[in-house]
Predict the structure.
Amino acid sequence: MRRSAFITRVAAAALSPAIARAQDEFSPEMSTNVESLRVLLGRGTARPRPEGGFTFNGRPYRGTFIVSSDGSVVSTVPLEQYLYSVVPREMPPSWPAAALQAQAICARTYVLQRSSPRRSYDLVPSEADQVYGGILSESPAGRAAVDGTARQVLRFGDAFAQIEYSSCCGGHTEASSDAWGSAPISYLNGVVCPYCTASPYYRWQRNVALASIAAAFSSEIAGYGSLREVHPGAADPSGRLRTVELRCDRGSAFVKGTQFRMRVGPRVIPSLLMTKIEPAEAPGNIRIEGGGLGHGVGLCQWGARGMALGGASSSNILDFYLPGTTIAND
Ligand SMILES: [Zn+2]
């Protein structure tokens, strides 16, 4: 999508009647602000600030706002200013400039991909979309990364590239098709990553009580007797476990790796890259060794940091983790 198409779409955005009414009442100038993004902040108190912008529940934000009849506050903010706040929330602003720039290009692409004239807002500032904390989340390094990549987006062919990233891949990024069972995407097929070894999650080990696993999978192991051991099942090409074997007195139940991680706890088991599962020294416990934090698909953020420290540019980084994509002006 070209920038002009985006502008047209925002200008012609089909606001819901409630929002449109509120827009007329509170912010008639909004419709002229065509390079902007609509962010649903939710219910709360919004007030204009004398120095510009507004506060929402006491936090300062750039841009303007409207209040819909149901009390939801929708902010309209220039895209680049929105990114000022998002980039430092998604990657520590103390990290090297090229890594922050790669993150900024990803964030911009993600936003433009999701802008939708069918809704009265484009984004929700939660983990589900991007973390948007307003002015207090900004930092000079984050602003520099956004300004240094102004208008740059990631494309594959004529379309925006699908943007995926996670904290640390543990040495091999994951194929999107293996992570989510979706159709393979050529630039999200997984690569060997030697750059994220500085992450505190590059390698990890955990002790987990068999009793807590048995409780989490009580229906799956019903009829097999007591849970005795846990073993890695099948792995995908990146090494992430597709299945985990729960070995009981009278047979084994095989559960999906994702299910195992979610039910035992995503903080207890940081990723599906579990390389060893064995009895722990403490009786009734197992010891799990693994690597990485998060789903591992797409950009490895710690890897981007490692590459940048080694002298790579944002373009080098995106080329490595999303091979075949190109950086273009939106
Ligand atoms: Zn990595």
In short: The pocket of zinc ion is lined by residues 168-169, 193, 195-196, 300, 302-303 (CB under 6 Å). Confidence is low (pLDDT under 50) at residues 1-34.
